Amino acid sequence: MSEQQKLTVLLTGGSGVLGESLIDCLAEDFDLVCLARKSRIRHPRVEVLKGDICSPRLGLDVGAYEALLKRVDWVIHAAAVTRMDGDIDQIFSVNYLGTENVVNFVQQANVPLYHISTAFTHPCDYYEGVQAETPYEVAKRQAETLVRSAGIDVSIFRPSIIIGDSDSGHMPNFQGFHMTMGLMMSGVLPIVPCPPAGYIDLIARDVAARAIANALRQRLIGADYFLTSGPQALDLNGLLDLMCQSMEAQAQAFTRPRCMAPDIYERLIRPVFLPALTGNIQAALGRANQLCRYACLRTPLPTSLPELLGEPAFSARDVSRELLLSLNHLAPKLGALTRMLKQPMPTVAQASVA
């Protein structure tokens, strides 16, 4: 295929937080085919196929699957359960078994693969006493081993914590660490089990997508890339300062959370105070405390952004501004978050139906 011809790219996870930004970056220069279980993708330049990575043949019938094998030139696998504290069975099914089905397709099509993982599969330098690794980390690490042992041309992209767009803070849905930040801002999480000097690596979703798109335009394959802020990462004190700034600008009351060493929190705070809380709040704080692991980095993560974006573009980034925009986008939704926490927990029967 000549450089002038458009590649046909199969994208999984196109309706996700990163996937939406990937579509914006890729749709003009590539023939983009998105596999979606529930089609929420409405883009004039994108072809949407209804499918499911957790099903044989990606949920397609034999004819559609064979036709797709013949015309795809590259695969970007971004579909995943991204809740770092989510249901273990669902995380394994989507993040590992789903990846296995995508790898089978790549092997049959004999095309390169961009596999989207997480920076936290990397051996991170955490402070002592942090929460244990999450099921999300475990499944993503297993999936990386799978793709690396599959005998295919593959590059792995490892984003850190994804926040809203760099120029607006827009985030289509709040998940994971956004919920933790919301609990801090609303006063539900008054004590944070993290050292104040702990680094927290955040990456705007459009910045991560642009880095992947640049790699694809250069046909880069074989290496692994960290989509992280690296030396530009903020520490927790910096994050809390920006929360104060955001809440003050919107005339909302804010009590700055207190930072505490993780091991002290586990010994003195968790066993005394958490059991006394109502079900929803107790569950939310449990998840938030688990995710605080990612704000306990002793040293910054490595980054590949200077290579993928160019050194001038990387140096021009303002991570504090990007985070402030995300916090400003989150702040008006804090009332809905606290109201949700006051709702009664679903019964086992209700939960199973959902």
UniProtKB/TrEMBL annotation:
One of its GO terms (biological process) is long-chain fatty-acyl-CoA metabolic process. InterPro entries: FAR, FAR_NAD-bd, NAD(P)-bd_dom_sf. Residues 43-212 form the Thioester reductase (TE) domain. One of its GO terms (molecular function) is alcohol-forming very long-chain fatty acyl-CoA reductase activity. Pfam families: NAD_binding_4. It comes from the Bacteria. SUPFAM superfamilies: NAD(P)-binding Rossmann-fold domains. PANTHER family: FATTY ACYL-COA REDUCTASE CG8306-RELATED (PTHR11011:SF45), MALE STERILITY PROTEIN 2-RELATED (PTHR11011). This is NAD-dependent epimerase/dehydratase family protein.
